[in-house]
C-alpha cells in the first residue's frame, strides 16, 4: 500500500509544470549547468526509470536533496518530525482521555443538563476547524491572560535537554530536568488542545451512544438482577465493551489531527514537520514534498495498525476468531 | 396520497428534531446571503481590490458590524462574498466526486473478487492511506494556486470515501433476491448496477453528501488558509483568518469573525445532514 502511495505521490510530483533543475539554479544559470543537474538527478530519463532510481534511494533512507535548503531531506525530517510526534501524542492522549470522560459522563447523566451541555458543545466543537480554535485560544489565553506560551517548544534561553528521543518532554524527564519538562509541557498545551478538540467531541458522542446502546442489552440487566453493585456494572460490564467503537475511530481522528497540524503548527510557530511541509509546499520543493507526504503516510499507517491491535486486544470476539484461524 | 401530503409527512418527521430545523435555517440563510451578496452586503465593492486607509482597522460598529480589515474593507461584506466561493467549491467537488466514487464503488462491489474489485479497492486504499488534507495540500502546492486547482485537488482525494461507502452496500445488496431475480431475467449489468442496486443506496449517499458539503468547505478554508485557494483580492474565509491572525490580539475581529463564519457553515451542514439521516432511518423503521 505504501508502495502504491509512493507511485501516486511521485507521479503528482513529476506533473509539476516547469523544470525543477532550472528552478533550483535560477534563471541566470547556463544551459550546461542545468543539463548537468538534470542528468545528476536522472530528470532526463523516462518517468518509470526516475521512479526506480528514487525508490532505490528511498529504501536506503535517502530522500534526495531539498532543492532550497540544500540539505538532504532526510536530515530536515529527522530534525522536525519529533516535534510533531510529541504534539500529536499529547493531543491524542488529551483527546482520548477527555473524550471518553465526557462520553461516559453524558451517558451516565443522559438527558440531564450535563448531557445537553456536552451535546451542544459537541456540535460546536466538531464544526469548528482546528485553526479557528487555535486563534481563539491564542487570543484568550496566550495574549490576554498570559498563562500559556504561544510560540515554539521552549522559552528562549531555556537550554534544551540532550537529544535522546527528540521529544523534549521525555528527554527532560530522562535527564531529570523538571523545570524544562514543565516548560515544554506548557508549550504543548495550547496547540495540543486546538488539535484535539474536534476529535475529542466526536469520541464523546460515540462513547455516549454506544454506552446507551449497550445499557439496553440483556446481559447488563442480568448483571443488575444478580445484585452486582451499580458502580461495578457501569465500569466493568458497560464501559469496557462501549470503548471499542471509540477506539476504532481513533485512527480516523488521528488523520484529521495530523492534517490539522499543518495549520496549527503554523499559528503556534511549532518547529514540526508540518510547518516544514507547508514551507516546502509553498516553495514547490518537490523532493521534500514527496518525502513529507511519504513519511506522514508511514506514520499514519503505523498508527492504524496500532489501533487495530488495540481493538483486537479490547474485543475478545476479534481476538479469539483470529486465534482460531 | 397526494404529493403535498408526502412532503408534509416528511417535514413533520424532520421538524421533530429542532436541531435539524436550526441546521436547515443556517444553510438556507447562508445560501441566500451568498446568492444575493451584491444586494445584501452593505459594501459590495469591498469584495474586490478596494482600498481606503482612512477606514482601516476599525473595530466592529453599527456601520461595520464585523469591523474593517487592514485595507479598510468591510469584513461582513467580504464574508458574504466568501460564502460564494465556499459553496461553489462544495458543489463542484461533490458534483465531480459523487458520480465517480459511487460508480466505482458499485462496480467493485458488484463484481466482488474479480480483478476489477481488487484493482479499484487497492487504489482506494492508497488514497485513504494519507490524511486527506495533506494530500490535497501537496497536490495544490505543485499546481498554480487558485480556486479551480483547489477544487481539483480536493476532488482527487475525496472520491475514495464514496467508493468505500457504496462498495460496502453493494457487496451485501448483490446477494439480495431482487438482484438475483433481475440477473435471472437477463437484465443488463448496467440495469442491475444503476436501477437495482443504486436506488437502495441513495438515502445513505444523500446523507453523506449533506455532511460532506460542510467538510469540503472546511478543507477549502484550510487550503486558502495557507494561501493555496482563492487568491487575493478575492475574499476567501481561510485567507481572511490567516491574514487576520497577524493582527492578533489588538485587531481580533479580523480573524475571529471569518473563523466563526466557517464554523457556522460546517455546523449548518452537519445539523442538516444529521436531520436528513434521521429522516431516512425513520422512513425505513
Overview of this protein structure:
Chain A is built from 15 helices and no strands. Chain A has 325 residues and is mainly alpha-helical. The longest helix of chain A has 38 residues, at 178-215. The model of chain A has no long low-confidence stretch (mean pLDDT 79). In chain B, 72% of the residues lie in helices and 0% in strands. Chain B is mainly α. At the A-B interface, helix 1, helix 6, helix 7, helix 12 and helix 13 of A face helix 5, helix 6, helix 10, helix 11 and helix 12 of B.
Overall number of strands of chain B: 0
N- to C-terminal distance of chain B = 20 Å
Largest sheet of chain B: none
Number of DSSP helical runs of chain A: 15
The ordered H/E elements of chain A are: HHHHHHHHHHHHHHH
Rg of chain B from C-alpha positions?
22 Å
Overview features:
heterodimer; A: 325 residues; B: 285 residues; mainly alpha; 12 helices
Structural topology:
The complex is a heterodimer of chains A (325) and B (285).
Chain A: H1 2-14, H2 20-25, H3 31-40, H4 47-59, H5 73-108, H6 113-127, H7 130-144, H8 168-174, H9 178-215, H10 218-225, H11 230-248, H12 250-267, H13 273-282, H14 286-314, H15 316-324
Helix pairs in contact in A: 1-14, 5-6, 5-9, 5-12, 6-9, 7-9, 7-12, 8-9, 9-11, 9-12, 10-11, 11-14, 12-13, 12-14, 13-14, 14-15
Chain B: H1 3-15, H2 18-35, H3 37-40, H4 75-110, H5 115-128, H6 132-142, H7 147-173, H8 177-184, H9 189-197, H10 202-225, H11 237-245, H12 253-284
Helix pairs in contact in B: 2-4, 2-12, 4-5, 4-7, 4-10, 5-7, 6-7, 7-10, 8-9, 10-11, 10-12, 11-12
